[in-house]
Specification:
It is a single chain. By secondary structure, the chain is α/β, with parallel strands linked by helices. It has a domain of 151 residues: Vaccinia Virus protein VP39 (Rossmann fold). It is built from six helices and nine strands, in the order ααββαβαβαββαβββ. The chain has a seven-stranded mixed β-sheet. Strand 1 and strand 2 form a beta hairpin. It starts with 10 loop residues before the first helix and ends in a 12-residue tail after the last strand.
């Protein structure tokens, strides 16, 4: 057992993470780099105090402002679908707790993450700094992406959207992949969209999920 590099991450948490990772493998997650990153990132530090003891259950939990920290399986599944290679430029919409952001940074990605609720954006930025994870945090409406920082190798939407925003597709590099849960308010289908040329995109469907909604505009709070 090696000592964790994170303050407040103890042997018991590492053990619970190992169990969680074994569960993810049983549920079909195969990408070693995803599993490795998730075995390192201390999910309990991203939870609201009342839920810390459940941090290594494979479930979504409430965070501030009525939002959620995604289920670990969902984080693993979306990250695997991104087919990441080292040092890619990734745009994440829906920073939330910052957990998914940390997993991407742990995998060696250059991450730009957008959140429409200031409180969440600020607290995720503070936490990731403390954990020594560097990412670019932006408080704002992610619907239009980040045109001045694009194009991106990968785009990940972690909130349910009625459709794939056109502006986002156009911020993908050729060969770039976008992963997003698309559909109704209480049920979405995971979509992978790959840009194969300037104006051609290939889509595939990857099962049903439930996310909090992707909303238009910044929140005042
Ligand atoms: N990736 C997060 C899960 C976040 S839940 C995690 O690992 O914890 C989805 C988040 O998307 C919420 O915090 C919500 O406020 C945010 N969101 C919804 N619509 C948005 C938009 N248009 N732009 C940016 N963020 C948005």
């Amino acid at each position: 057992m090696i000592l964790s590099r994170f303050e407040g991450d103890h042997f018991q948490h590492q053990g619970q993470r190992r169990k969680l990772i074994n569960g993810l493998i049983k549920k079909g997650i195969r990408d070693e780099r995803v599993l490795e990153a998730m075995s390192v990132v201390p999910r309990h530090l991203f939870m609201e105090s009342g839920f810390i003891r459940f941090a290594y259950q494979d479930q979504a939990f409430p965070i501030a402002a009525g939002q959620t920290i995604s289920q670990p399986y969902t984080v693993a599944f979306q990250t695997e679908l991104l087919e990441l290679s080292e040092h890619q430029k990734v745009l994440e919409l829906g920073t939330g707790s910052g957990y998914q952001t940390a997993v991407l940074v742990e995998m060696g990605m250059r991450v730009f993450t957008v959140e429409r609720i200031r409180l969440l954006s600020n607290s995720a930025e503070t936490l990731l700094k403390k954990l020594d994870y560097q990412a670019y945090f932006m408080f704002g409406d992610g619907y239009k992406g980040l045109p001045t920082y694009g194009p991106f190798d990968r785009i990940l939407i972690t909130a349910g959207a009625p459709g794939i925003p056109e502006d986002l597709k156009n911020q993908l590099t050729i060969g770039g992949i976008l992963v997003a849960p698309i559909g109704e308010k209480d049920h979405q289908t995971m979509i992978k969209c790959q840009r194969i040329s300037e104006d051609e995109f290939v889509f595939s469907e990857h099962g049903g999920f439930v996310f909090v909604p992707l909303l238009k505009g910044k929140s005042d709070s």
